[in-house]
Specification:
Helix content: 25-40%
Bound molecules: flavin mononucleotide
Strand order of the largest sheet: 2-1-3-4-5
Strand content: 15-25%
Oligomer: single chain
Number of strands: 5
Radius of gyration: 15 Å
InterPro entries: Flavoprotein-like_sf, FMN_Rdtase-like_dom, NAD(P)H-dep_reductase
Domain NADPH-dependent FMN reductase-like: 5-143
GO molecular function: FMN binding; oxidoreductase activity
Pfam families: FMN_red
CATH topology: Rossmann fold
CATH class: Alpha Beta
Number of helices: 5
Protein name: NADPH-dependent FMN reductase
CATH architecture: 3-Layer(aba) Sandwich
Structural class: alpha/beta
């Protein structure tokens, strides 16, 4: 497949986020013909409300759904907060449960946090609930993330850099296998 379009979602809203740094690094690894755009609407999404979950949802929800539909794959990169998934990220996923944008969509999940295993496991459950396709090689848990990104927002850990390349390869492979 040519001209692959991947939507990246960071579960961190921080301007100097290490998860945003990881998305920048994966974007830099993207081969010709693969475009990765970061979704920037997480902070403006309204709280999920089933009564507003219809064909004419609030504008930010419509925008999210449109971007997801247009994407060949989704890269989610997130920290863990209080042993769980950041609320803003879970909120975004909840807006897609009935509209179904993730059904059969190739997804890579990178949880980059101090520890992160609870959020990673919980997100995999949620992604299963919304029928996303998460290949084994497209799941990556990166603990001690703050030691692996420098103050310029660059990923400096060689093992992580190699792992990010493998995740991107697995995600592109899953798109091409569709
Ligand atoms: C309120 C709060 C709660 C946190 N809870 C956890 C946690 O439960 N598990 C964990 O691994 N890291 C936790 N952390 C640390 C984050 O993983 C760490 O700050 C990470 O770098 C945040 O990602 P970011 O740099 O992309 O914003 C927490 C951080 C904050 C601010």
């Amino acid at each position: 497949m040519s001209n692959i379009n991947i939507l990246a979602i960071s579960g961190s809203l921080r301007p100097n986020s290490s998860n945003a740094a990881i998305i920048r690094q994966v974007t830099a690894f993207a081969p010709p013909g693969v475009t990765i755009n970061q979704y920037n609407g997480l902070a403006t999404l309204p709280h999920f409300n089933p009564d507003l979950d219809n064909d004419t949802p609030p504008a930010p929800v419509f925008e999210l759904r449109t971007l997801l539909k247009a994407a060949d794959a989704v890269l989610i990169c997130t920290p863990e907060y209080a042993f769980g998934v950041p609320g803003s990220l879970k909120n975004a996923l909840d807006w897609t449960v009935s509209s179904g944008e993730f059904v059969d969509k190739p997804v890579a999940l990178i949880t980059a946090s101090s520890v992160g295993q609870n959020a990673h496991a919980a997100l995999l459950l949620t992604l299963g609930a919304i029928s996303a396709k998460v290949a084994d090689d497209a799941k990556l848990l990166i603990p001690f993330i703050r030691t692996k990104v420098n103050s310029d927002g660059e990923v400096i850990d060689e093992e992580v850099l190699q792992a990010l390349k493998m995740v991107l390869k697995a995600l592109i492979g899953a798109i091409n296998d569709q």
